[in-house]
Amino acid sequence: MFRTHTKIKRFSLMVMGIGLLSLTLFNAKPGHVAAEAFIVQGSDLVSARAAVLSAGGKVTHELGIIHAVGAELTVAQQEDLRALKSVRLYTNRSVQTAKKKKKDKPSDSDGGEAFGNTSHVTLIAAEKLHAEGITGLGVTLAVLDSGLADSAQIKRGTDGQLRILSQYNAITDEELSVWSAPNDDYGHGTHVQSISLNSEPSSDTGYYRGVAPNARLVAVKAFDENGQGSYADVIRGIDWLLNNKDAYDIRVLNLSFSAPPQSYYWDDPLNQAVMAAWQAGIVVVASAGNTGPDPMTIGVPGNLPYVITVGAMSDNYTPDNPADDKLASFSSAGPTVEGFIKPDLVAPGGHVVALMDDSGLIAQEHPEFHEEKGMYFVMSGTSQSAAVVSGVAALMLQADPGLSPDDVKCRLMASARGARNEDGSPRYSILQQGSGLVDAYGAVNSDITGCANRGLDIASDLSGEEHYAGLVRRDEEGNYYLQEVEGASMLWADSMLWADSMLWADSMVVGDSMLWADSMLWADSMLWADSMLWADSMLWADSMLWADSMLWADSMLWADSMLWADGVSWADSMTEAVSTNVWVPQE
């Protein structure tokens, strides 16, 4: 899986070695040596497994999708494996879905929320498609999250027929019956699934509460009752999905979590699994993360250039008045460390109303956002935004089953509506809003192709032959801009992507009227999804030396704390818990 390219010699030892991702130090019994959790990657699954067993370690996961195994290893066993040239070690990092940062005090707008609200459907014009019979029928959506609740609105379509095809518990490595007992004790997975495919009409509006109310569902549980999981569990879940892709005709995968990047996008094992899913023909939708508003806060796997990365916007509690819509202040922003523009677009992610049982941990910690009957819950985050776009992807694939993942991404971005001021100027940077607010009706009726992932070769990327960089650069004063490309008319070429005029303190002021207009992707005929080949090395230092030869030095420096040299190795210092899609106040 990892063949080094002559242009990337400095990465060869890392690529041919072993990688690890660390989560937990297992408490050893008296007389036993403590073991840690790792991911061990080889040239194939068999060689990785053999290496672990020969060192005396215990294999815990088979991760064929990335030619690796999960393993428990003592310090001595780790040293033995690190001495090999045929495997690579990653510490088995922990990941979490939305978690509680602190007890939020409800604001005036938090209370009195209309639990019949379906604005996440109407803001993107999905109800128009429902009226035309486009409801996601026949399209399978996989959701990898905290499990499945006992909810008829999720388990059955609008006709009352069962539409759950399968359940898989990646934590226990167990495929479950569609009639199995509910296993979402956290609530996050249920909320996400409900946004994408709730089949119940709202008693207030009459519109379906889900974006794709007739899509089929495959539910994968990789997060426990506390919203915590591990890289190994998440990768095993994606591996299972890929192995069962054809059996259940899985077309869309929703990943509503994000972890801070600790390597280049191609060197992260979780990203490698996600890339394999995209390459296999699955449309992958990932949340941007809830750690905004600062630039360069996009998480894993949303930092992958291939996938559809979604940020969050809010209707400001006035769904019928777009003039005061705003970007959510928590929504993570680009660029990625490799210079790619992210997020790709935004979707409703403020005070979204969806199913969540009152017995779940999130509902118990935030009872003020739960309705009295214990069914619907109000929650904000890019997790919710990603679920909206996953539903839209299902609608698109019902209307045109022949679309590739790149086609779906292209049409979503080309049809999105950019946030603009009354004079037509951008309300937010494209590093904050991407191409704009998703438009389900426009995406389904689009016939555009060839505008996404231009210049990228995912097979070469996965094999290690080539890796890629985006077009965003930063000048000596810390302003972000797009590099000129010969023969291309570049949007924002004469102005900054992120300068003083686009600080959140200014752009978040609600007062001046705002409108959702043409996609930011097509303005000034600039296709900013283009990329370039990652050369021998990359230098993104303060001097910003960008010669025609594209010399990139040993490391890539964007900010004082963002430096990864050739020696990045997922070492023991990276064993802290990874906070993904943290709980944020309602917006």
Residue runs with pLDDT of under 50 for 5 or more positions: 1-29, 99-113, 487-496, 499-511, 522-529, 535-580
CATH superfamily of the largest domain: Peptidase S8/S53 domain
What's the pLDDT, averaged over the residues?
Answer: 79
Strand proportion: 15-25%
| CATH fold type of the largest domain | Rossmann fold
Number of helices: 17
Work out the radius of gyration.
23 Å
Question: What's the CATH architecture name of the largest domain?
Answer: 3-Layer(aba) Sandwich
In the CATH hierarchy, what is the class of the largest domain? Alpha Beta
Total separate domains: 2
Secondary structure class reads alpha/beta
Biggest sheet descriptor: 9 strands, mixed
Structure write-up:
This protein is α/β, with parallel strands linked by helices. It is built from 17 helices and 25 strands. Helix 8 runs parallel beside helix 10 (269-279). The longest helix is centred in the middle third of the chain and has 18 residues, at 382-399.
Task: Please summarize what this structure is.
By secondary structure, the protein is of the alpha/beta class. It has two domains: 88 residues, Alpha-Beta Plaits (2-Layer Sandwich), CATH 3.30.70; 326 residues, Rossmann fold, CATH 3.40.50.200.
Which features characterize this protein?
587 residues, alpha/beta, Alpha-Beta Plaits, Rossmann fold, 2 domains, 9-stranded mixed beta sheet, 6-stranded mixed beta sheet, 17 helices, 25 strands, 22% helix, globular
Question: Topology of this protein?
Answer:
Elements: H1 12-16, E1 19-22, E2 36-41, H2 45-54, E3 58-63, E4 68-73, H3 75-82, E5 88-96, H4 119-122, H5 126-131, E6 140-145, H6 152-155, E7 164-169, E8 174-176, H7 188-197, E9 216-221, E10 228-230, H8 231-243, H9 245-248, E11 250-255, H10 269-279, E12 283-287, E13 308-314, E14 326-327, E15 345-348, E16 352-355, H11 361-365, E17 376-379, H12 382-399, H13 405-415, E18 419-421, H14 430-433, H15 440-444, H16 458-463, E19 468-469, E20 472-474, E21 480-482, H17 504-507, E22 514-516, E23 532-533, E24 556-557, E25 563-564
Helix pairs in contact: 7-12, 8-10
